[in-house]
Amino acid sequence: MSVSVFGAGAFGTALAISLAQNGPVTLWARDVSPLENKRQSPRLPGITLPDQISITGDLEQALENDTLLFSIPMQNLSGFLSRINSDLEGKALVACCKGVDLRSGLGPVGILSETKPKAQAAILTGPSFAADIAKGLPTALTLACTDDAIGKEIQHQLSTPSLRLYRSTDTVGAELGGALKNVMAIACGAAMGAGLGDSARAALMTRGFAEMTRFAASREARPETMAGLSGLGDLALTCTSDLSRNYQLGLALGRKEAFDPSITVEGAATAQAMDRIAIDTGLSLPICHAVAALTQGRVTVDDVMTQLLSRPLKEE
Ligand SMILES: NC(=O)C1=CN([C@@H]2O[C@H](COP(=O)(O)OP(=O)(O)OC[C@H]3O[C@@H](n4cnc5c(N)ncnc54)[C@H](OP(=O)(O)O)[C@@H]3O)[C@@H](O)[C@H]2O)C=CC1
Ligand SMILES: O=C(CO)COP(=O)(O)O
């Protein structure tokens, strides 16, 4: 089976580099010139693309392959897919992004399934920094697909000597874990940036995980998915590493510093989307609510901590 990756940002390029160990890969970019000129992505500087990767800006050509990976930021995924006229029947579409779409409230698998119902949607998610994958450092991810037979094929096709994929049929849990951990990482970064300490971060991670599990249960996701790579695994990585952009945004908010708005930070829009869902459904998602307000500049870190700590005492 042949593979195309759409989106030559940090993650799409890193995945293409890893997959090139298995055979030819097509990497589609909306602007091919930086990639063609230097055989490097500006978002993964210093890492040269292997010859197995063909770069193209021709959408139709890239769509000819059987397995299509979409590494386009969450809020742009729906618009990008609407440019594709074909129904992509018989293709495997693998979401490689994390978040909840503000317009629809859907996650990436939801968007793929809604836009291209004749194709098979799946998601590749879990704890991984693009630079680690590109350097061939050991990484384990979740590949979730509701059709287990197709999931197995994709799992084998996308596993490489350094990228180990575990399979699941719980696409809802997998996409929620990846989306929500980014919100928690902003909260943890903010706490650390404001000097609130490691204990506060541990509390936010644990209560954040409780919030993730509670919401996932309301969507009939499996608790073991939340406890796996796409949930707890990615929460642990993103809430504790300075390499995470979501955590970095939190740090900047906590330190009252500016943050470059061109950097992809999925957790800010996802917090807003989750806050809307919480209002519509009556579910309690206090950390998502706090991060939505914080990232929109409506409150300070001090306000948020006072709000979180002054809620009524309850059972764990
Ligand atoms: N970086 C990482 O370590 C990881 C990232 N992810 C996830 O991968 C997804 C992508 O992130 P990442 O690669 O890091 O982000 P980057 O900011 O590095 O790259 C985003 C890419 O998407 C392209 N893009 C943006 N909007 C559109 C659009 N409307 N149509 C077509 N292409 C578009 C950009 O093109 P252009 O260059 O032309 O602007 C760029 O190539 C996110 O959901 C992220 O959470 C998951 C795991 C790890
Ligand atoms: O998803 C990631 C790690 O699994 C990357 O995190 P950031 O988007 O916060 O950099």
From TrEMBL:
SUPFAM superfamilies: 6-phosphogluconate dehydrogenase C-terminal domain-like (SSF48179), NAD(P)-binding Rossmann-fold domains (SSF51735). One of its GO terms (biological process) is carbohydrate metabolic process. HAMAP family: NAD_Glyc3P_dehydrog. NADPH binds at F11, R30, K98, A130, R245, E266. Residues 3-149 form the Glycerol-3-phosphate dehydrogenase NAD-dependent N-terminal domain. It is an enzyme of class 1 (oxidoreductase). Substrate binds at K98, R245, N246. It catalyses: sn-glycerol 3-phosphate + NADP(+) = dihydroxyacetone phosphate + NADPH + H(+); sn-glycerol 3-phosphate + NAD(+) = dihydroxyacetone phosphate + NADH + H(+). GO terms for molecular function: glycerol-3-phosphate dehydrogenase (NAD+) activity; glycerol-3-phosphate dehydrogenase (NADP+) activity; NAD binding. Belongs to the NAD-dependent glycerol-3-phosphate dehydrogenase family. PROSITE patterns: NAD_G3PDH (PS00957). Catalyzes the reduction of the glycolytic intermediate dihydroxyacetone phosphate (DHAP) to sn-glycerol 3-phosphate (G3P), the key precursor for phospholipid synthesis. The active site is at K181. It comes from Pelagimonas phthalicica. One of its GO terms (cellular component) is cytosol. Signal peptide: none annotated. This is Glycerol-3-phosphate dehydrogenase [NAD(P)+]. Its main location: cytoplasm. It is found in: Cytoplasm. Pathway: Membrane lipid metabolism; glycerophospholipid metabolism. Residues 170-305 form the Glycerol-3-phosphate dehydrogenase NAD-dependent C-terminal domain.
